[in-house]
Specification:
The chain is of the alpha/beta class and about 325 residues long. The protein is built from twelve helices and twelve strands. It has one domain: Rossmann fold. It is about 35% helix and about 25% strand. An eight-stranded mixed sheet has the order 6-7-8-3-9-10-12-11, sandwiched between helices. Strands 2-1-4-5 form a four-stranded antiparallel sheet. A hairpin with a 5-residue loop joins strand 1 and strand 2. The longest helix is centred in the middle third of the chain and has 18 residues. Bound molecules: iron/sulfur cluster.
Length: about 325
């Protein structure tokens, strides 16, 4: 297998919410991201997946645990290394309109990172922006326009060009297609796949729906209430899901064949996701799990490799 690019070790990110209470957005998760792969990270809204991405890229400081990028603990790096880290790890956001400054022309938006890092100036800068626009399927005439003049899909392409401008190695894409029309989603996913091949990129691709990550991810991690429930190769996860929560998520994806759709057994989850301020004891999923046992309320299941390269946190596999 390829080399580890990012190692997330027992990462926790808690937020103070007053009166001595803490919101445990990310609660002790560990996983690696390998060079050149796409790791999909999936879960319902509020499960901690975006906070995980933001803590990895240091938009948030970690409460505890480590994020190691090419051998450096990213929350401890200082001085010149911070600038280099900021160049090598980039982020693409869900809402491309909110993340693009409406008063800046596209050329300046894309070149912002190049200006900060002092790479490409004058004519070279303009040439590079035009190249990047072509790379993401836009053209050089778009450089002088402003974000409101573009469609959602085009704005996400601008966001991708901005991330690419500083030659990153690792891109965290935080729900990059969730706000787009279904017809445009596939185009953006295909663009990201092509760019990955051409530029040797590694992705953490965050989404709230397993069907969205299926076509881009080599491996997929499933989060629930701040914890990682399961992580496996995409094919394994779709064919042989182990965790009851993954099974429920998969059973909610419609099958295009009407007969198969009618025949299959669905797992409908009852109840709402509990509050991350006051999570259940033991397994975080136990209040909604159709297979819950007594032990599930008493002990938190251990994160372990239940099958080769297939990790799960569930007492059914201990
Ligand atoms: Fe369900 Fe228990 Fe497994 Fe949690 S540990 S997913 S409650 S069976």
């Amino acid at each position: 297998m390829a080399k580890k690019l990012v190692e997330v070790k027992n990462l926790q990110k808690h937020f103070d919410v007053g009166k001595g209470k803490k919101l445990k957005a990310v609660n002790d998760i560990s996983f690696d991201v390998y060079e050149g792969e796409t790791l999909g990270l999936v879960g319902e809204s509020g499960c901690g997946k975006s906070t995980t991405g933001r803590t990895i890229i240091r938009l948030y400081e970690a409460t505890s645990g480590e994020v190691v990028f090419r051998g450096d603990n990213v929350h401890k790096i200082k001085g010149k290394k911070v600038k280099e880290f900021n160049r090598r790890m980039q982020m693409i956001f869900q809402d491309p309109y909110a993340s693009l400054n409406p008063r800046m022309a596209v050329e300046d938006i894309i070149a912002e990172g190049m200006d900060i890092h002092g790479i490409y100036q004058g004519k070279e800068r303009t040439k590079r922006v035009h190249e990047l626009l072509e790379t993401v399927g836009l053209n050089s005439e778009h450089a002088t326009r402003f974000p409101h003049e573009f469609s959602g899909g085009q704005r996400q392409r601008i966001g991708i060009a901005r991330a690419l401008a500083v030659d990153p190695e690792f891109i965290i894409a935080d729900e990059p297609i969730s706000a787009l029309d279904v017809s445009i989603q596939a185009q953006v996913v295909n663009l990201m796949k092509d760019l990955q091949k051409d530029h040797g990129l590694t992705y953490l691709f965050i989404a709230h729906d397993l069907s969205m990550v299926k076509h881009i991810s080599d491996r997929i991690g499933v989060m629930y209430l701040g914890g990682l429930m399961e992580l496996a190769d995409s094919e394994d996860l779709y064919k042989e899901p182990l965790h009851p929560y993954t099974k429920a998520l998969l059973s909610s994806i419609p099958i295009p064949d009407p007969q198969k759709e009618e025949e299959r057994k669905r797992t409908i989850l009852s109840g709402d996701v509990p509050s991350p301020i006051d999570p259940p004891s033991g397994c975080p999923f136990r209040t909604r799990c159709p297979d819950a046992m007594d032990v599930c309320a008493k002990e938190r299941p251990v994160w372990q490799e239940a099958r080769p390269n297939h990790y799960v946190a569930c007492h059914l596999y201990e």
